[in-house]
Amino acid sequence: MNVDSYRFLPRSFRPYYEGRGPFPGEEEPVWAPFPKRLSEARIGLLTSAGLYVKGSQPGFDVERERANPEWGDPGWRLIPAGVEPADIAVAHLHISDEDLLADPEIALPARLLDQLVEERVVGGATAEHMSVMGYQERSLAGWRDKTAGELAARLVEQRTDGLILAPA
Amino acid sequence: MPVLARWIERAGISTVVVTMMPSVAEERRAPRVVGVEFPFGHAFGRPGDRPMQRQVLQLALRVLAGASRFGTRVDLDVEWPVPLREAYRAWQPKEASPIVKVILETGRRPV
């Protein structure tokens, strides 16, 4: 069974995604072999649903996006693995936030991952997971020039063996 | 996000992208892909549905840890248990996003 990649996308938006090929300069394979048994590995999560922690973090800059629709906030937030779901907020203008607020695990399954750690399926989870806001300008300049390097450095610092990325 | 996965993979960290658009992730050359036929914003399934979320997360972990080569894609054979029309409406924001408004107003085509 193959997933229909366009099942939930409005038909008129399909040409924005289909058949566009690799991002310029990103044609070649890139591969980091998974280094150990899953039961000994530390796993992190990264969502692009625009999640942030209410009260202690600013949201992603949706006002600037409203003023400049071609732009999306390229920043990132660290989401503590043990954060209460009620403390999570969403700043993303392209998807409904209703289900995300009801259960943030649908984008960032931190509690479920902790459960798999308890069951010893997974060796460990990173103390903090990561969140970005997925709508970006087409060149991905902000992510390429700043965010990607910062995220990678943080992942190395956390001794992360594998990362699960979930686009919103 | 597939490109972000590549940049992180290049730093030596294995990645898997769990996505509702797996063919796009493949085109963008993500190293490992898990496809889910779920509405946007719901990569791991329905709110409160732990068995469904667990199925997705476990498949992602299997592909992350077990894929032997670049470009591995595995799709999850789970149907979204909500009628299409209802699910299609439910994932979209109440107000069209700024860029969608521009596209609708100008009829602009992709560049």
Question: What does this entry look like structurally?
Answer:
- The complex is a heterodimer of chains A (168) and B (111).
- Chain A has four helices and seven strands, in the order E-E-H-E-E-H-H-E-E-H-E.
- Chain A has helices at 62-67, 98-102, 110-118, 141-157, and strands spanning 42-47, 51-53, 76-80, 88-90, 124-125, 128-132, 162-166.
- Chain A has one domain (43-166).
- Chain A is globular.
- Chain A has 168 residues and is an alpha/beta fold.
- The model of chain A has no long low-confidence stretch (mean pLDDT 95).
- In chain A, strands 1, 3, 5, 6 and 7 form a five-stranded mixed β-sheet that branches.
- In chain B, 43% of the residues lie in helices and 13% in strands.
- Chain B has one domain.
- The mean pLDDT of chain B is 94.
- Chain B is of the alpha/beta class and 111 residues long.
- In chain B, strands 1-2-3 form a three-stranded parallel β-sheet, sandwiched between helices.
- Chain B is built from five helices and three strands, in the order αβαβαβαα.
- Strand 7 (162-166) of chain A pairs parallel with strand 1 (14-19) of chain B, so a sheet runs across the interface.
Topology:
The complex is a heterodimer of chains A (168) and B (111).
Chain A (H helix, E strand, L loop, with lengths): L41 E6 L3 E3 L8 H6 L8 E5 L7 E3 L7 H5 L7 H9 L5 E2 L2 E5 L8 H17 L4 E5 L2
Parallel strand pairs in A: 1-5, 1-6, 1-7
Antiparallel strand pairs in A: 2-4, 3-6
Chain B lengths: L1 H9 L3 E6 L2 H6 L4 E4 L14 H17 L5 E4 L8 H7 L7 H9 L5
Parallel strand pairs in B: 1-2, 2-3
